[in-house]
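Sequence only, no structure available. Ideas?
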Amino acid sequence: MSKKVRWGVIGSGGIAKRRTIPEGIVPARNGDLISVFDIDPDINKAVADEFGAYAAASIEAMLNSDIDAVYIATPADAHCQQVFDCAKAGKHALCEKPLGLSVEEAQKMMQACKDAGVILGTALMMRFHTQHQAALHIVQEGKLGEPTFARAQLSCWYPPIENAWRQNLKQGGGGSLIDMGGHCIDLLEMYFGSVKKVNCMINNTIHNYESEDSAVVSLFFENGAMASVDAFFCIPDASSKNCLELYGSTGSILAQGTIGQGEAGTMTAFLEEKDASYDAQQDDVSNGGIEISPKPFNTYQAEIEEMGNAILEGREPSNSAELGLRNQMILAACYESARSGRMVSV
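Reply:
I predicted one. Tokens follow.
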């Protein structure tokens, strides 16, 4: 293999056209876009022309060409078979989340790639956000003390749209919870470790499509910390600040706008000395906190380059299939909790 990964894309419309191709694959320092495929040939040709790629007539034609890896950006119900196809052709795969429609599919996808000796990654790009990574360093250094509580929010306005696969249970596996809540859950596990059990409520509060437009999850971690995730398809975009809040025994990190597809938001750390005495007056002596503002770096480029480096170095990527499987396990527990009305262990 050359020093650059030769990429193909399955599902060139949607998120691939809007974000991952122009912001991730094209500027990647260790990759080149070679070919694209979409079930809509007109869209596929337009994408190919725009980014100087070859418009493959079929998935088979793409996989038989001289590419090294495939970015899969199709509806969730197609992920499993398309990863199988990549593995059979000896191509590495970076699959959009969710990793298939179920825990079982995720496991089968991982096994197929293991048997074929190719790498499977999960596109959880929010892990690469520079402010999220800066917050992770603070947590890992123990500056928040013992983790106590966290909140992650990702909501938008997503009205009924004809043929929208995220509104179709068979294609998407769910709605706001699996689509947006999955990102939030993954981030909170990155900060606080493994989730032990969940309590979840879902609803169609405003929209009447098949999948849920509302989801609230309570998370209980192995270390005793707790968290909440709220993900809605029925809150106007400008009204949701996409908050991230991390609390510990010696401080907090509070952010707005870092969760999402952008490169930067606002993030502030409020840190105190350990073993502070009890303040009966509960006076707020905050000095405004410490602004956390590392130089932004595009999250899509970061995830493509990490996957590319893993391929070139023959190792597992940090955005691994294990993360995708773990995410599916927690989501499955959430949906079971919503169905049963009880707390469910992961």
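The first helix runs from residue 15 to 25.
Hope that gets you unstuck.
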